[in-house]
TrEMBL record:
CDD domains: Orn_deC_like. It comes from Vulcanibacillus modesticaldus. It holds the Pfam family OKR_DC_1_C. Transmembrane segments: none annotated. The lineage of its organism: Bacteria, Bacillati, Bacillota, Bacilli, Bacillales. Gene3D superfamilies: Aspartate Aminotransferase, domain 1, Molybdopterin biosynthesis moea protein, domain 2, Type I PLP-dependent aspartate aminotransferase-like (Major domain). Residues 7-301 form the Orn/Lys/Arg decarboxylases family 1 pyridoxal-P attachment site domain. This is Arginine decarboxylase.
Length: 488
């Protein structure tokens, strides 16, 4: 493969440059028939917004430039097969589960997975056996599962057809998976990894190893999150004797559109091209800029900017976790304050605000962030008396995380879809079975899971999130005054 080329992108450009005439879809005809209001902004990209005409291959039956681009990606990321996804890692999670489980099959699943995993379980009619992650008390967020609890669950459910985990989590926190992968393989079943937030892993010496490198069987990565693809551009990588690739392809053809976006696919191709061309040098500058940033914010008192955790966990260098040192200042407060300065973060929770950087982040961007944090400090410092010492303080009482106690679904997921349900007040819902997920978004991890018995602690936690202005998905009542429960 010529490193100077991005086969799919090059082909698209050559079509446009040849002065081709379009008597096919899309109807905007390379931009000529596009809304005049948006034409100027969309113009360049519409030139390559094409369809499956000869030479441009077909995502669902690739044999030309798309196959070439996917094969290059597979080589770059260490897979036997790589599939381009045009609907994000959401599709990858659905396809991984559908390809692994038949109706009624058990699968061991990390409890704090993204909602798309739960949707995949519902579509596959699989039976999840949840494993709770360990909490990270200094940050008040859920971490990873550990080997001991997985070992115990595998012993109890030796008939499980696979293990599904997320590594890293949204905050870029994860663990070395080697031991866990070896354990799962000793049961001769595959390990499926949602690595949506780790598409760049393994590509620079300061990044953690990728889960494929560590031996995972099938892995989805959101190339659009920490690498450089357009939004929705993701990749699904396979290297396994346990995964039936034909079955996987069949499901991908069912759940991906029959009109995949060429600009998105080409952006995946260009991402691989750029990484191959520049190698680790792509990130050298941002890693250096981050060193400077961390020095600038090192003396903050109200917030602590985390770039290291205890040795059980790694922390992705491209994630900046701004952790509040004071109960009166939530992560959401930090986020809102920065928004007034036109600085937009990825997410915030009760204790933390999270920003993501990439090689597209400049010195100036990081300076605005550090200046913004110092402004918060100066504004609040006189009104706050109890600044905590982060190294010794565990935030959030354990009660906050009761929702992570070992609760399995009381009823199969798909049965809930067809059951009679009703909306009840939060207080009334306690003790009933949840017929909807309650998902703070971001990060999109359900706090209340379908089929779980609703506890007082979960309701208290949800009320606290709501009061702090956290947004929810999955719920019927937009204001979360009522919850949908099984009508039993
Ligand atoms: C852990 C995790 N997995 C999967 C997804 C879905 O990824 P995508 O947005 O690429 O569909 C997300 C989205 O935020 C996520 O956080």
């Amino acid at each position: 493969m010529d490193k100077a080329n991005a086969p799919l992108f090059d082909k698209l450009v050559s079509y446009y440059q040849r002065n081709s005439i379009s008597f096919h879809v899309p109807g905007h005809k390379m931009g000529e028939g596009f809304s005049p209001l948006g034409r100027k902004v969309y113009q360049e990209i519409l030139k390559i917004d094409m369809t499956e005409i000869p030479g441009l291959d077909d995502l669902h039956q690739p044999e030309g430039v798309i196959l070439e681009a996917e094969q290059r990606a597979a080589k770059l990321f260490g897979a036997d097969h790589t599939f381009f996804l045009v609907n994000g890692s959401t599709t990858g999670n659905l396809a991984m589960i559908l390809a692994t489980c038949q109706p009624g099959d058990k699968i061991i699943v990390q409890r704090n997975v993204h909602k798309s995993v739960i949707h995949g379980l519902m579509l596959a009619r699989a039976v999840p056996i949840y494993i709770n992650p360990k909490m990270i008390p200094q940050l008040g967020i859920a971490g990873s599962i550990n080997k001991e609890s997985l070992e115990q669950t595998l012993r109890t459910h030796p008939d499980a057809k696979g293990v599904f985990i997320m590594n890293p989590n949204y905050y870029g926190i994860g663990i070395d998976l080697k031991e866990i992968i070896d354990l799962v393989h000793s049961y001769k079943i595959p390990i499926l990894v949602d690595e949506a937030h780790g598409a760049h892993f393994g590509l620079h010496p300061s990044f953690p190893s990728s889960s494929l490198e560590m031996g995972a069987d099938i892995v989805v990565q959101s190339t659009h999150k920490t690498l450089f693809a357009m939004t929705m551009g993701s990749m699904l990588h396979v290297r396994s004797k346990y995964i039936d690739v034909d079955r996987l392809k069949l499901y991908l053809s069912m759940i991906q559109t029959s009109s995949p976006s060429y600009p998105i696919m080409a952006s995946l191709d260009l991402t691989c091209h750029w990484i191959e061309k520049e190698g680790k040098g792509l990130w050298d500058n941002i890693i250096q800029l981050l060193d400077d940033f961390y020095q600038k914010v090192d003396q903050l008192k109200i917030m602590r900017v985390k770039h290291r955790l205890d040795r059980r966990y790694f922390l992705d260098p491209l994630k900046i976790i701004i952790h509040s040192q004071n109960k009166k200042v939530s992560g959401v407060d930090i986020q809102k304050y920065l928004e007034q300065k036109n600085i937009y973060l990825e997410l915030a929770d009760l204790y933390n605000a999270l920003s993501i950087v990439t090689p597209g982040t400049s010195y100036q961007d990081l300076k605005r962030l550090s200046d913004g944090l110092w402004e918060i400090e100066q504004t609040l410092i006189n009104s706050i008396d109890d600044i905590q010492d982060i190294e010794n303080t565990e935030v959030g009482s354990v009660d906050h995380f009761i929702f992570l106690n070992n609760k399995q679904s009381k009823i199969s997921l798909e049965k809930i879809l067809y059951s009679k349900t009703r909306l009840v007040s939060l207080q009334e819902s306690i003790g009933k079975i949840a017929a909807e997920m309650v998902i703070p978004y971001p990060p999109g991890i359900p706090v209340l899971q379908l089929g779980e018995e609703i506890t007082k602690e979960t309701i208290e936690y949800l009320i606290e999130l709501k009061d702090k202005g956290i947004r929810f998905q999955g719920i019927h009542d937009h204001y979360l005054q009522r919850i949908k429960v099984l009508d039993q």
